[in-house]
Request: fold
Amino acid sequence: MDGKIDLHFALRNHKTIMKDVYYQPPLKASRGLYVDNPDDITVYLMESSGGLVAGDKNAYRVRLDKGTNVTLHPQAATKVYPAFNGKPSKQEVDIELAEQACLTWKREEVIPFAESEFHSHTTVNMKKGSSFYWEEILYPGREKRGERFTFVKCHTQLEVWMEEECLVYDGLRFEPSVQDVKHFGVMGDYHYIASVWIIDREIELDVEKWSHSSTDHQVSITKLRDAGYLVRFLSNDLPRVKKEMDQLGNKKLAVSV
Amino acid sequence: MKRQKEDSQNHLNTEVINTKFLYLMHIHDSAFPIGTYTHSFGMETFIQEDAIKTKEDLFHFLQVYLHENVSYTDGIFVKESYQKEELAELIRLEKICDASKNAEETREASSMIGKQFVKAVLPVSDTPSLEKWNELLQEKKVIAHFPIVYSLYAKDLAFDLYTTVLTFLYSSTVGLVHNAVRAIPLGQKAGIEVIHRLIPEMEKATINVLERDLSDLSNHAVGLELASMQHKYLRSRLFIS
Reply:
Protein backbone atom coordinates (compact mmCIF):
# COMPACT_ATOMS: atom_id res chain seq x y z
CA MET A 1 0.00 0.00 0.00
CA ASP A 2 1.10 3.55 -0.64
CA GLY A 3 0.33 5.92 2.20
CA LYS A 4 0.50 9.65 1.72
CA ILE A 5 0.34 12.79 3.82
CA ASP A 6 0.60 16.34 2.40
CA LEU A 7 0.52 19.19 4.87
CA HIS A 8 0.71 22.91 4.25
CA PHE A 9 1.01 25.34 7.14
CA ALA A 10 0.45 29.08 6.87
CA LEU A 11 0.02 32.12 9.08
CA ARG A 12 -3.40 33.66 9.69
CA ASN A 13 -3.58 36.65 12.01
CA HIS A 14 -0.13 35.77 13.43
CA LYS A 15 -1.29 32.24 14.23
CA THR A 16 -0.01 29.07 12.52
CA ILE A 17 -2.83 27.14 10.89
CA MET A 18 -2.97 23.95 8.86
CA LYS A 19 -4.05 25.49 5.55
CA ASP A 20 -4.21 22.33 3.46
CA VAL A 21 -4.19 18.70 4.42
CA TYR A 22 -4.42 15.62 2.26
CA TYR A 23 -3.93 12.05 3.34
CA GLN A 24 -4.28 8.63 1.88
CA PRO A 25 -4.59 5.45 4.00
CA PRO A 26 -2.92 3.89 5.82
CA LEU A 27 -1.51 7.30 6.76
CA LYS A 28 -3.61 9.87 8.53
CA ALA A 29 -2.98 13.27 10.11
CA SER A 30 -4.70 14.47 13.28
CA ARG A 31 -6.32 17.89 13.56
CA GLY A 32 -4.02 20.73 14.43
CA LEU A 33 -3.69 21.05 18.20
CA TYR A 34 -2.38 24.02 20.14
CA VAL A 35 -0.64 22.30 23.04
CA ASP A 36 1.59 24.95 24.56
CA ASN A 37 0.63 28.20 22.93
CA PRO A 38 -1.26 29.55 19.93
CA ASP A 39 1.97 30.10 18.01
CA ASP A 40 2.92 26.45 17.86
CA ILE A 41 0.65 23.93 16.14
CA THR A 42 1.06 20.19 16.80
CA VAL A 43 -0.11 17.49 14.41
CA TYR A 44 0.02 13.74 15.10
CA LEU A 45 0.98 11.47 12.22
CA MET A 46 -0.85 8.17 12.37
CA GLU A 47 -0.38 4.89 10.60
CA SER A 48 -3.39 2.59 10.72
CA SER A 49 -1.99 -0.56 9.09
CA GLY A 50 0.39 -1.55 11.88
CA GLY A 51 3.51 -1.42 9.77
CA LEU A 52 5.14 -1.49 6.39
CA VAL A 53 4.91 -4.76 4.48
CA ALA A 54 7.36 -5.49 1.69
CA GLY A 55 6.87 -3.11 -1.21
CA ASP A 56 4.83 -0.56 0.80
CA LYS A 57 5.73 3.08 0.52
CA ASN A 58 4.83 5.98 2.77
CA ALA A 59 5.34 9.50 1.46
CA TYR A 60 5.18 12.68 3.51
CA ARG A 61 5.24 16.18 2.08
CA VAL A 62 5.35 19.10 4.48
CA ARG A 63 5.42 22.77 3.58
CA LEU A 64 5.79 25.59 6.10
CA ASP A 65 5.13 29.19 5.08
CA LYS A 66 7.13 32.10 6.42
CA GLY A 67 7.07 32.49 10.19
CA THR A 68 5.08 29.34 10.99
CA ASN A 69 5.87 27.10 13.93
CA VAL A 70 4.99 23.40 13.69
CA THR A 71 5.56 20.20 15.68
CA LEU A 72 4.91 16.86 13.99
CA HIS A 73 4.57 13.80 16.17
CA PRO A 74 4.66 10.27 14.68
CA GLN A 75 2.22 8.45 16.92
CA ALA A 76 4.03 5.10 16.86
CA ALA A 77 7.25 3.52 15.70
CA THR A 78 7.45 2.43 12.07
CA LYS A 79 7.49 -1.37 12.04
CA VAL A 80 9.01 -2.93 8.96
CA TYR A 81 7.88 -6.48 8.09
CA PRO A 82 9.98 -9.09 6.25
CA ALA A 83 10.66 -8.52 2.56
CA PHE A 84 10.00 -12.10 1.48
CA ASN A 85 9.12 -10.97 -2.03
CA GLY A 86 12.45 -9.14 -2.34
CA LYS A 87 10.78 -5.74 -2.39
CA PRO A 88 11.97 -3.18 0.15
CA SER A 89 9.63 -0.96 2.15
CA LYS A 90 10.14 2.73 1.57
CA GLN A 91 9.57 6.04 3.22
CA GLU A 92 10.02 9.44 1.64
CA VAL A 93 9.83 12.73 3.47
CA ASP A 94 10.03 16.07 1.64
CA ILE A 95 10.11 19.21 3.70
CA GLU A 96 10.16 22.85 2.61
CA LEU A 97 10.70 25.59 5.15
CA ALA A 98 10.24 29.26 4.27
CA GLU A 99 12.04 32.12 6.06
CA GLN A 100 11.68 32.10 9.87
CA ALA A 101 9.64 28.88 9.79
CA CYS A 102 10.37 26.32 12.50
CA LEU A 103 9.64 22.61 12.24
CA THR A 104 10.16 20.02 14.96
CA TRP A 105 9.80 16.37 13.94
CA LYS A 106 9.51 14.39 17.15
CA ARG A 107 11.04 10.96 17.51
CA GLU A 108 10.94 9.08 14.28
CA GLU A 109 11.40 5.44 15.36
CA VAL A 110 12.11 2.59 12.99
CA ILE A 111 11.97 -1.09 13.95
CA PRO A 112 13.22 -3.28 11.09
CA PHE A 113 12.08 -6.87 11.78
CA ALA A 114 14.18 -9.90 10.86
CA GLU A 115 14.44 -10.39 7.06
CA SER A 116 13.09 -6.91 6.39
CA GLU A 117 14.44 -4.27 4.04
CA PHE A 118 13.83 -0.57 4.58
CA HIS A 119 14.88 2.55 2.68
CA SER A 120 14.05 6.01 3.87
CA HIS A 121 15.00 9.33 2.38
CA THR A 122 14.32 12.64 4.07
CA THR A 123 15.05 15.87 2.20
CA VAL A 124 14.75 19.29 3.75
CA ASN A 125 15.02 22.55 1.82
CA MET A 126 15.31 25.51 4.15
CA LYS A 127 15.38 29.24 3.65
CA LYS A 128 17.57 31.56 5.69
CA GLY A 129 16.37 32.13 9.23
CA SER A 130 14.32 28.94 9.40
CA SER A 131 15.06 26.16 11.86
CA PHE A 132 14.63 22.41 11.90
CA TYR A 133 14.72 19.83 14.69
CA TRP A 134 14.75 16.15 13.83
CA GLU A 135 14.87 13.21 16.25
CA GLU A 136 15.23 9.59 15.28
CA ILE A 137 15.88 6.19 16.84
CA LEU A 138 16.90 3.12 14.92
CA TYR A 139 16.11 -0.20 16.65
CA PRO A 140 18.15 -3.35 15.94
CA GLY A 141 14.92 -5.34 15.41
CA ARG A 142 12.39 -6.79 17.87
CA GLU A 143 14.87 -7.29 20.74
CA LYS A 144 12.29 -9.14 22.85
CA ARG A 145 12.28 -11.83 20.20
CA GLY A 146 16.06 -11.85 20.19
CA GLU A 147 16.32 -10.01 16.88
CA ARG A 148 19.49 -8.01 16.72
CA PHE A 149 20.58 -6.77 13.31
CA THR A 150 18.84 -9.67 11.62
CA PHE A 151 17.20 -7.45 8.97
CA VAL A 152 18.51 -7.62 5.42
CA LYS A 153 19.05 -3.92 4.84
CA CYS A 154 18.18 -0.71 6.57
CA HIS A 155 19.16 2.48 4.78
CA THR A 156 18.24 5.88 6.05
CA GLN A 157 19.29 9.15 4.47
CA LEU A 158 18.82 12.66 5.78
CA GLU A 159 19.84 15.65 3.70
CA VAL A 160 19.31 19.27 4.60
CA TRP A 161 19.98 22.16 2.24
CA MET A 162 19.83 25.88 2.83
CA GLU A 163 19.68 27.37 -0.65
CA GLU A 164 22.92 26.13 -2.27
CA GLU A 165 24.58 25.11 0.99
CA CYS A 166 24.50 21.51 2.16
CA LEU A 167 24.04 21.47 5.95
CA VAL A 168 23.47 17.76 6.59
CA TYR A 169 24.18 14.74 4.45
CA ASP A 170 23.91 11.73 6.67
CA GLY A 171 23.40 8.24 5.35
CA LEU A 172 23.23 5.20 7.63
CA ARG A 173 23.38 2.06 5.52
CA PHE A 174 23.25 -1.15 7.46
CA GLU A 175 23.56 -4.47 5.70
CA PRO A 176 24.53 -6.75 8.58
CA SER A 177 25.26 -9.87 6.54
CA VAL A 178 28.24 -8.19 4.85
CA GLN A 179 29.28 -5.71 7.53
CA ASP A 180 31.22 -6.04 10.77
CA VAL A 181 28.39 -4.47 12.79
CA LYS A 182 29.56 -5.76 16.19
CA HIS A 183 33.01 -4.18 16.04
CA PHE A 184 33.39 -1.23 18.43
CA GLY A 185 34.06 1.07 15.47
CA VAL A 186 30.53 0.39 14.22
CA MET A 187 27.96 -0.54 16.93
CA GLY A 188 30.07 -2.51 19.43
CA ASP A 189 27.75 -3.99 22.05
CA TYR A 190 25.18 -1.24 21.63
CA HIS A 191 21.75 -1.90 20.16
CA TYR A 192 20.23 1.50 19.48
CA ILE A 193 21.38 4.50 17.47
CA ALA A 194 19.60 7.73 18.17
CA SER A 195 20.19 11.16 16.69
CA VAL A 196 18.97 14.64 17.44
CA TRP A 197 19.65 17.17 14.70
CA ILE A 198 19.34 20.78 15.75
CA ILE A 199 19.56 22.99 12.68
CA ASP A 200 19.38 26.39 14.22
CA ARG A 201 22.13 29.00 14.18
CA GLU A 202 20.65 30.97 17.05
CA ILE A 203 21.17 28.52 19.88
CA GLU A 204 24.08 27.24 21.86
CA LEU A 205 24.16 23.98 23.79
CA ASP A 206 26.15 23.08 26.86
CA VAL A 207 28.46 20.68 25.00
CA GLU A 208 30.06 19.15 28.10
CA LYS A 209 26.64 17.97 29.25
CA TRP A 210 26.15 15.98 26.05
CA SER A 211 29.41 14.11 26.00
CA HIS A 212 29.61 11.12 28.31
CA SER A 213 29.83 7.38 28.07
CA SER A 214 29.25 4.27 30.16
CA THR A 215 29.08 0.59 29.29
CA ASP A 216 25.49 0.67 28.13
CA HIS A 217 24.99 4.25 27.04
CA GLN A 218 27.04 6.89 25.32
CA VAL A 219 26.20 10.26 23.93
CA SER A 220 28.32 12.71 21.95
CA ILE A 221 27.76 16.08 20.45
CA THR A 222 29.31 17.81 17.48
CA LYS A 223 28.97 21.23 15.97
CA LEU A 224 27.90 21.25 12.35
CA ARG A 225 29.48 23.84 10.09
CA ASP A 226 27.47 27.07 10.48
CA ALA A 227 24.33 25.08 11.08
CA GLY A 228 23.79 23.86 14.65
CA TYR A 229 24.42 20.52 16.31
CA LEU A 230 24.14 16.79 16.06
CA VAL A 231 23.74 14.86 19.32
CA ARG A 232 24.19 11.16 18.73
CA PHE A 233 23.59 8.21 21.05
CA LEU A 234 24.72 4.60 21.06
CA SER A 235 22.84 2.83 23.79
CA ASN A 236 21.19 -0.22 25.27
CA ASP A 237 19.10 1.90 27.61
CA LEU A 238 16.11 2.99 25.55
CA PRO A 239 14.23 4.80 28.37
CA ARG A 240 17.35 6.85 29.08
CA VAL A 241 17.77 7.75 25.39
CA LYS A 242 14.15 8.92 25.28
CA LYS A 243 14.54 10.88 28.49
CA GLU A 244 17.67 12.65 27.27
CA MET A 245 16.05 13.33 23.90
CA ASP A 246 13.14 14.96 25.72
CA GLN A 247 15.59 17.13 27.64
CA LEU A 248 17.19 18.21 24.38
CA GLY A 249 13.76 18.82 22.90
CA ASN A 250 12.84 21.00 25.82
CA LYS A 251 14.65 24.08 24.67
CA LYS A 252 14.39 25.82 28.03
CA LEU A 253 16.32 23.04 29.80
CA ALA A 254 18.92 22.20 27.21
CA VAL A 255 19.70 25.49 25.61
CA SER A 256 21.64 28.38 26.96
CA VAL A 257 21.50 31.34 24.61
CA MET B 1 51.62 -13.95 -24.67
CA LYS B 2 55.19 -14.05 -25.94
CA ARG B 3 54.79 -10.53 -27.24
CA GLN B 4 53.45 -9.39 -23.88
CA LYS B 5 56.44 -10.85 -22.10
CA GLU B 6 58.85 -9.16 -24.47
CA ASP B 7 57.03 -5.86 -24.00
CA SER B 8 57.27 -5.98 -20.24
CA GLN B 9 60.94 -6.81 -20.39
CA ASN B 10 61.67 -3.84 -22.59
CA HIS B 11 62.32 -1.08 -20.10
CA LEU B 12 61.50 1.61 -22.69
CA ASN B 13 57.85 0.51 -22.63
CA THR B 14 57.48 0.61 -18.87
CA GLU B 15 59.73 3.57 -18.22
CA VAL B 16 57.06 6.24 -18.50
CA ILE B 17 54.61 4.57 -16.17
CA ASN B 18 57.30 3.56 -13.68
CA THR B 19 58.84 7.01 -13.52
CA LYS B 20 55.46 8.61 -13.19
CA PHE B 21 54.66 6.25 -10.33
CA LEU B 22 57.49 7.81 -8.36
CA TYR B 23 55.43 11.00 -8.03
CA LEU B 24 52.71 9.03 -6.26
CA MET B 25 55.27 7.23 -4.11
CA HIS B 26 56.71 10.59 -3.17
CA ILE B 27 53.41 12.04 -1.92
CA HIS B 28 52.80 8.90 0.13
CA ASP B 29 56.15 9.13 1.85
CA SER B 30 55.50 9.47 5.58
CA ALA B 31 57.80 12.51 5.58
CA PHE B 32 55.69 14.29 2.95
CA PRO B 33 54.48 17.42 4.77
CA ILE B 34 50.69 17.20 4.67
CA GLY B 35 50.26 16.58 8.37
CA THR B 36 48.78 13.07 8.38
CA TYR B 37 51.06 12.20 11.29
CA THR B 38 49.13 14.65 13.48
CA HIS B 39 45.66 13.13 12.91
CA SER B 40 44.09 9.95 14.25
CA PHE B 41 40.46 10.52 13.10
CA GLY B 42 39.13 9.27 16.43
CA MET B 43 41.51 6.29 16.78
CA GLU B 44 43.29 7.90 19.74
CA THR B 45 40.07 7.76 21.79
CA PHE B 46 39.99 3.96 21.33
CA ILE B 47 43.71 3.69 22.16
CA GLN B 48 43.18 5.60 25.41
CA GLU B 49 40.18 3.41 26.25
CA ASP B 50 42.47 0.38 25.76
CA ALA B 51 40.21 -0.92 22.98
CA ILE B 52 43.30 -1.02 20.71
CA LYS B 53 46.25 -2.51 22.61
CA THR B 54 47.82 -5.17 20.43
CA LYS B 55 48.88 -5.78 16.84
CA GLU B 56 45.72 -7.87 16.35
CA ASP B 57 43.47 -5.14 17.77
CA LEU B 58 45.09 -2.63 15.42
CA PHE B 59 44.72 -4.85 12.36
CA HIS B 60 41.08 -5.54 13.10
CA PHE B 61 40.34 -1.88 13.80
CA LEU B 62 41.93 -0.77 10.51
CA GLN B 63 40.12 -3.50 8.62
CA VAL B 64 36.86 -2.07 9.95
CA TYR B 65 38.07 1.50 9.29
CA LEU B 66 38.78 0.55 5.69
CA HIS B 67 35.67 -1.50 4.94
CA GLU B 68 33.04 0.19 7.12
CA ASN B 69 34.24 3.77 7.01
CA VAL B 70 36.63 4.92 4.24
CA SER B 71 35.12 2.77 1.51
CA TYR B 72 31.64 4.15 2.35
CA THR B 73 32.83 7.77 2.69
CA ASP B 74 36.08 9.27 1.35
CA GLY B 75 36.69 6.41 -1.09
CA ILE B 76 33.39 7.27 -2.78
CA PHE B 77 34.33 10.97 -2.87
CA VAL B 78 37.64 10.12 -4.58
CA LYS B 79 35.81 8.07 -7.18
CA GLU B 80 33.02 10.58 -7.75
CA SER B 81 35.42 13.54 -8.08
CA TYR B 82 37.46 11.59 -10.60
CA GLN B 83 34.34 11.06 -12.73
CA LYS B 84 33.02 14.63 -12.58
CA GLU B 85 33.79 16.83 -15.56
CA GLU B 86 31.88 20.00 -14.67
CA LEU B 87 33.31 22.37 -12.10
CA ALA B 88 29.86 23.17 -10.68
CA GLU B 89 29.27 19.46 -10.06
CA LEU B 90 32.61 19.14 -8.29
CA ILE B 91 31.86 22.13 -6.06
CA ARG B 92 28.49 20.58 -5.14
CA LEU B 93 30.21 17.27 -4.45
CA GLU B 94 32.62 18.90 -2.05
CA LYS B 95 29.72 20.55 -0.21
CA ILE B 96 28.19 17.10 0.27
CA CYS B 97 31.59 15.76 1.38
CA ASP B 98 31.86 18.53 3.98
CA ALA B 99 28.30 18.07 5.28
CA SER B 100 28.63 14.28 5.45
CA LYS B 101 31.47 14.52 7.97
CA ASN B 102 29.49 14.95 11.16
CA ALA B 103 32.34 14.90 13.66
CA GLU B 104 33.89 18.36 13.71
CA GLU B 105 37.50 17.23 14.22
CA THR B 106 37.37 14.70 11.38
CA ARG B 107 35.85 17.34 9.10
CA GLU B 108 38.58 19.84 10.01
CA ALA B 109 41.32 17.20 9.64
CA SER B 110 40.20 16.38 6.11
CA SER B 111 40.35 20.00 5.02
CA MET B 112 43.62 20.71 6.87
CA ILE B 113 45.31 17.80 5.11
CA GLY B 114 43.75 18.80 1.80
CA LYS B 115 45.00 22.38 2.07
CA GLN B 116 48.51 21.22 3.03
CA PHE B 117 48.48 18.83 0.09
CA VAL B 118 47.59 21.59 -2.38
CA LYS B 119 50.30 23.82 -0.89
CA ALA B 120 52.90 21.07 -1.13
CA VAL B 121 52.26 19.75 -4.64
CA LEU B 122 51.16 22.84 -6.53
CA PRO B 123 54.55 24.58 -6.82
CA VAL B 124 56.22 21.43 -8.17
CA SER B 125 53.53 19.87 -10.37
CA ASP B 126 51.71 20.61 -13.56
CA THR B 127 48.12 20.05 -12.47
CA PRO B 128 45.62 22.47 -14.06
CA SER B 129 42.60 21.13 -12.10
CA LEU B 130 44.34 21.60 -8.81
CA GLU B 131 45.45 25.10 -9.83
CA LYS B 132 41.84 25.99 -10.57
CA TRP B 133 40.77 24.48 -7.24
CA ASN B 134 43.41 26.54 -5.47
CA GLU B 135 42.03 29.72 -7.06
CA LEU B 136 38.58 28.79 -5.75
CA LEU B 137 40.13 28.05 -2.37
CA GLN B 138 41.69 31.53 -2.23
CA GLU B 139 38.27 32.98 -3.07
CA LYS B 140 36.82 30.85 -0.22
CA LYS B 141 34.45 29.11 -2.62
CA VAL B 142 35.75 25.64 -1.75
CA ILE B 143 37.31 23.96 1.27
CA ALA B 144 39.86 21.58 -0.28
CA HIS B 145 38.85 18.30 1.36
CA PHE B 146 41.65 15.77 0.91
CA PRO B 147 39.72 13.10 -1.10
CA ILE B 148 38.66 15.76 -3.63
CA VAL B 149 42.07 17.37 -4.17
CA TYR B 150 43.85 14.01 -4.16
CA SER B 151 41.56 12.78 -6.90
CA LEU B 152 42.07 15.94 -8.99
CA TYR B 153 45.84 15.57 -8.69
CA ALA B 154 45.94 11.88 -9.60
CA LYS B 155 43.63 12.43 -12.56
CA ASP B 156 45.77 15.31 -13.87
CA LEU B 157 48.77 13.01 -13.68
CA ALA B 158 46.79 10.52 -15.78
CA PHE B 159 46.63 7.74 -13.23
CA ASP B 160 43.63 5.52 -13.78
CA LEU B 161 40.65 5.45 -11.43
CA TYR B 162 41.59 2.12 -9.85
CA THR B 163 45.11 3.32 -8.98
CA THR B 164 43.75 6.61 -7.70
CA VAL B 165 41.28 4.97 -5.29
CA LEU B 166 43.72 2.22 -4.24
CA THR B 167 46.53 4.63 -3.39
CA PHE B 168 44.12 6.92 -1.53
CA LEU B 169 42.98 3.98 0.63
CA TYR B 170 46.63 3.05 1.14
CA SER B 171 47.46 6.54 2.35
CA SER B 172 44.41 6.67 4.67
CA THR B 173 45.24 3.41 6.43
CA VAL B 174 49.03 3.40 6.45
CA GLY B 175 49.09 6.86 8.02
CA LEU B 176 47.01 5.49 10.90
CA VAL B 177 49.34 2.49 11.34
CA HIS B 178 52.34 4.84 11.73
CA ASN B 179 50.41 6.89 14.27
CA ALA B 180 49.16 3.85 16.18
CA VAL B 181 52.69 2.43 16.43
CA ARG B 182 53.74 5.62 18.23
CA ALA B 183 50.62 5.97 20.38
CA ILE B 184 49.96 2.42 21.64
CA PRO B 185 53.04 1.90 21.42
CA LEU B 186 53.96 -1.06 19.21
CA GLY B 187 57.25 -2.10 17.63
CA GLN B 188 58.12 -1.18 14.04
CA LYS B 189 57.97 -4.87 13.10
CA ALA B 190 54.36 -5.05 14.25
CA GLY B 191 53.53 -1.99 12.15
CA ILE B 192 55.09 -3.53 9.04
CA GLU B 193 53.17 -6.74 9.59
CA VAL B 194 49.86 -4.91 9.99
CA ILE B 195 50.45 -2.95 6.77
CA HIS B 196 51.29 -6.12 4.84
CA ARG B 197 48.14 -7.81 6.07
CA LEU B 198 46.08 -4.75 5.17
CA ILE B 199 47.25 -4.54 1.55
CA PRO B 200 44.93 -7.33 0.27
CA GLU B 201 42.10 -5.63 2.23
CA MET B 202 42.85 -2.37 0.38
CA GLU B 203 42.41 -4.19 -2.91
CA LYS B 204 39.02 -5.60 -1.82
CA ALA B 205 37.93 -2.19 -0.56
CA THR B 206 38.92 -0.54 -3.86
CA ILE B 207 36.81 -3.03 -5.82
CA ASN B 208 33.87 -2.21 -3.52
CA VAL B 209 34.37 1.54 -3.91
CA LEU B 210 34.36 1.28 -7.70
CA GLU B 211 30.90 -0.30 -7.51
CA ARG B 212 29.52 2.41 -5.24
CA ASP B 213 28.18 5.91 -5.84
CA LEU B 214 26.86 8.84 -3.79
CA SER B 215 23.72 6.93 -2.83
CA ASP B 216 25.95 4.45 -0.96
CA LEU B 217 27.53 7.06 1.33
CA SER B 218 27.18 5.82 4.88
CA ASN B 219 28.16 6.89 8.37
CA HIS B 220 27.21 3.56 9.92
CA ALA B 221 30.61 3.32 11.65
CA VAL B 222 28.93 5.23 14.47
CA GLY B 223 31.37 4.01 17.15
CA LEU B 224 34.20 5.68 15.24
CA GLU B 225 32.17 8.84 14.70
CA LEU B 226 31.44 9.12 18.43
CA ALA B 227 35.11 8.44 19.22
CA SER B 228 36.03 11.35 16.95
CA MET B 229 33.45 13.62 18.62
CA GLN B 230 34.80 12.65 22.06
CA HIS B 231 38.44 13.13 21.08
CA LYS B 232 38.45 16.83 21.89
CA TYR B 233 37.48 16.04 25.49
CA LEU B 234 40.42 13.64 26.15
CA ARG B 235 42.68 14.88 28.92
CA SER B 236 45.95 14.45 27.04
CA ARG B 237 46.26 14.10 23.31
CA LEU B 238 49.03 13.20 20.91
CA PHE B 239 46.96 14.02 17.84
CA ILE B 240 44.85 16.95 16.63
CA SER B 241 41.93 14.70 15.68
User: Anything to note?
Assistant: Residues 51-228 of chain B form a domain with the Urease accessory protein UreF fold (CATH 1.10.4190.10).
